[in-house]
Amino acid sequence: MADTHVPVRGEDEPEQLREQFRQLLRYRWVIGTGVGVGLLAGAWLGITGADSYAATTDIVLRAPTSDPFAPTLATDKAVNMGSERQTALSRKVAEGAAKRLGMGADEIDRLQHGLQVTNPPQTLVLHFTYSASDPKEAARRANALTQSYIDLRKQQWESVRGSMLKSLQGQLDPVAKQNDELSQRLKQLPNGSAADSAYAVQANLLNRITDLRGKITSLKALDMTPANVIRNATVPTSSDGPGLPLSLGLGGLVGVGLGLLGAWVRLVFDPAPRSAGDVVRAVRGPVLGALPRGSAGTLVVGRTDSRAAEEYRSIAFRLAYDERFADRRRLLVVAPRGSIESSVAVAVNLAASFAETGKNVLLVEADLRTPSLSERLDVSAASRPRWSRTGEHAEGEWPGRGQLVVDAGESGAFGLVPGERVRNVPRVLTSAATTRLIAEADDPNATVVVVAPPVLAYADALALVDRVDGVLIVCDPRTVHRADLVRIRELIVGAGGTVLGAVTHTEPRQGRAATAPRRDKRRRGAGSPAARPTPPSPRPEPEQPLDGDGSTTITLRAVHSGDR
Question: Are 226 and 281 in the same domain?
Fold first, then answer.
């Protein structure tokens, strides 16, 4: 078999991106929630930022030195900016600023909370920023915290210098005392080798004394200023926040991003088919048609201006040219689970579409649990075609007591075998009478369309697969899981059938019954003509409402157990 796989070309990528974006728009409520959260956050930021004022100061750090103009001075190596920033944010600095401001000990934490200290890259500058609701208070506290940091660092440096001076002085005093004692001894020693040795020792002591005194002098000469203020805090004239309009704009942009991210995550983990391609991969068959929204509950074939009618005609032609269906002309229409309404509507409209092309069509209602199709269509048992008659069958065996004819308006007519309640559904579906009924499609000009309950709800459809062969799956991608479609395909293939494809539809959230007009139909007995009620006025007959082009539309209505 030739490889029919066509690689995705580069020019198809924009179409894939458009498809993915359309899939994201399925979750508008997620995107809307993200936008709402972003706008709320932006509004909160704009409102709270309007009452916040920020005052700033800048200082340049320096290391203690005796010659600030020395070219070999490496202050950036002597000062660790990360450590200095943490020191500026420490509680010790806040305590010193609180004393300057006359604040109590219980206000230190609040004072410390409003301070931010940053270090611009590749600089020795510390940037102090203090935020407060009062602009004057913000400037006053920023200056107080900056000066408290400078005082603390100066105190620390002087403490270090004092410790070093004390240590050096402690080393100098014993050496000086020893030198004084040696000088007294030299006055008493005569000239000779003993005196020469004492003079050598004294020279060493003098060198030691000179070195220690030089170090002490250098330490005392150091400039211990830890930093220079290059900008004092002034009273800010405007609030620190970005403003309400800008905050709302930024919040909206962030909300859109969050919404799209949430929609993407929801899309990834959504078990429902995201596109027609997902349905194709799940059932391993083509999507033969996508019905317009809200059109799955109405017999629309015969309406020349109806999009749904043209879609059904397209599906019928695609099936007619499918060799797997054209050979035997048997079609089983099923839904995954839930209601049978959509599959019944598709089966009826496809039967009308085949009848419109001149085929002798027999619609078989294989729903033997809640049959109601004959009560919802314009049916009659008069002038029944020869090809729709079956042979005799045993008492109690379905297909019922007779076949009916459905008037599909301009599309023509087709036969209907209505379902009826039985005790043993599997036995009736596998009976010889059912086999003879489905064999009506052996006529070269005949087509049999069978509608059965949902596959995942009952095994009725699987009991018919080996005789019907071709299966058409009707599903709403929003309400079915990909795993369900894969499971249906496996069951059908395992029962000996073939999935011809799928038909997708989208119904409003309030339910399918609201999309199609309802009308009551009286079930007619065998041989009775189709009787239509006479209207009391020359208005159109209520049982067959007229469309804009004068054609009639036969509707399906939901029939509950209490209606029968």
Answer: no
Taking CA 191 as the corner, what is the angle to CA 190 and CA 193, rounded to the nearest 5 degrees?
110
Spatial CB neighbours of 243, under 8 Å, sequence gap ≥ 6: 46, 49, 50
Residue 25 lies in a domain: no
String of DSSP letters for 158-217: HHHHHHHHHHHHHHHHHHHHHHHHHHHHHHHSPSSHHHHHHHHHHHHHHHHHHHHHHHHH
Is the torsion defined by CA of 194, 199, 200, 204 positive or negative? positive
Q: Which amino acid is at 480?
A: V
**For 229-240, what is each residue's pLDDT tens digit?**
999 988 888 776
Half-sphere CA count of 251, side-chain side, radius 13 A: 22
- Within-domain flag for 72: yes
What CATH number did the domain enclosing 553 receive? 3.40.50.300
Q: Are residues 504 and 478 in contact, defined by beta-carbon separation less than 8 angstroms? A: no
Burial 318-345 (b: 16+ CB within 10 A, else e): ebeebeebeebbbbbbbbbbebbbbbbb
Q: Which residue has the tokens 């009062």?
A: 134
Say which range, 79-93, 109-123, 296-310, has the weakest mean pLDDT: 296-310
148-176 average pLDDT score: 90
Q: Mean pLDDT in the chain? A: 77
In percent, the amount of the chain with pLDDT more than 70 equals 77
Supply angle C-alpha 197, 200, 203, rounded to 5: 155
Q: Are strands 404-407 and 227-231 parallel, antiparallel or unpaired?
A: unpaired
Token reading at 261: 């991210």
Q: DSSP string of 377-400?
A: S-EE-TT--GGG------TT-TT-
Lookup: tokens for 92: 């010790």
**3-state DSSP helix/strand/coil percent for the chain, to nearest 5?**
50, 15, 35
Consecutive H or E run containing 356: helix 341-356
Q: Look at residue 401 in the predicted model and tell me its pLDDT.
A: 60
Gap between the Cα atoms of 157 and 298, Å rounded: 92
Give 34-60 pLDDT, tens digit per residue: 888 888 888 877 776 667 788 999 999
Per-residue model confidence as pLDDT tens digits over 453-470: 898 888 888 888 888 888
**Contact status, residue 269 vs residue 263, Cβ threshold 8 Å:** no
CATH number for position 140: 3.30.1890
- Determine the structural domain holding residue 165 and report its residue range: 51-231
Q: Distance between alpha carbon 11 and the CA centroid of its chain, in Å?
A: 27
Output the six-digit token pair for 151. 């005082």
Q: Provide the whole-model pTM.
A: 0.55
Q: Which amino acid is at 311?
A: E
Are residue 197 and residue 282 in the same domain, yes or no? Answer: no
DSSP class per residue in 202-267? HHHHHHHHHHHHHHHHHHHT-B---EEEEE-----SS-SS--HHHHHHHHHHHHHHHHHHHHHHHH
Sign of the Cα pseudo-torsion (511, 512, 517, 523, in order): negative
CA neighbours closer than 13 Å in the CB half-sphere of residue 309: 18
Q: Which residues pair with 413 in a beta bridge?
A: 407
The structural domain count of the chain equals 2
Pairing of strands 227-231, 287-290: unpaired
